[in-house]
Amino acid sequence: MSDPKWFTSLDGLQIAYDDTGPGTAAGRPPVILHHGFAANAYLNWKAPGVVDALTTSGRRVVSLDARGHGRSDKPHEPRYYGENNMARDVSTLIDTIGAETVDLVGYSMGAIVSLVVGTQEPRVRRLVIGGIGGGVVEHGGVDMRRRGAELRLIDGDHLGAVADPQFAPAIVEFVNRGRGGSPGSY
To answer: Model-level pTM greater than 0.85?
Structure first.
């Protein structure tokens, strides 16, 4: 990945992010990618081809290294961590890039953070989560007893699932499709 851009979190940490692809086209907001635990934007999104697949499809892609991960600051005090702090970082990132709306994609830890963001951030247009199991949808919240590799795609009233671990094409199709598809049609 190229040299990162940076923003300062609300509690003073430097958070790294990459901003690639074309500018935001009408009706096609940027896609923000949030990686999983003990990973970074490169490992979860660039290396497997997700960033390239999205930019090739014409999307602007913004992928961050969460606090304590990758190129971002790694403080030693526990008070700097947790999903709520990371969710605030995503909102600050949305402010930083000047987006009116975003499509948000999270994997594993990033999926949990993305769910928190989705409940608090009205600028999230679409939410794609993976690596946390079906309990989130089936039980109305994060069910820590189940941790599958299934990818869940959520768009308003529509829910689809993709069990293929090579999910880059599914993410591209989902974030690029218009409203109205049927559940499970991915």
So the answer is: no
Q: Are strands 124-130 and 102-107 parallel, antiparallel or unpaired?
A: parallel
CA-CA distance, 72 to 167, in Å (whole number)?
A: 26
Q: How far is Cα 111 from Cα 113, in angstroms, rounded to an integer? A: 5
pLDDT > 90? residue 154: no
Cβ contact 65:41 at 8 Å: yes
Amino acid code (one letter) for 15: I
Least confident of 63-72, 96-105, 159-168: 159-168
Structural domains in the chain, CATH included, are 5-176 (3.40.50.1820)
- Tokens read off for 160: 């689809």
Q: Which of 54, 73, 55 is nearest to 65 (CA)?
A: 73
pLDDT at residue number 45? 97
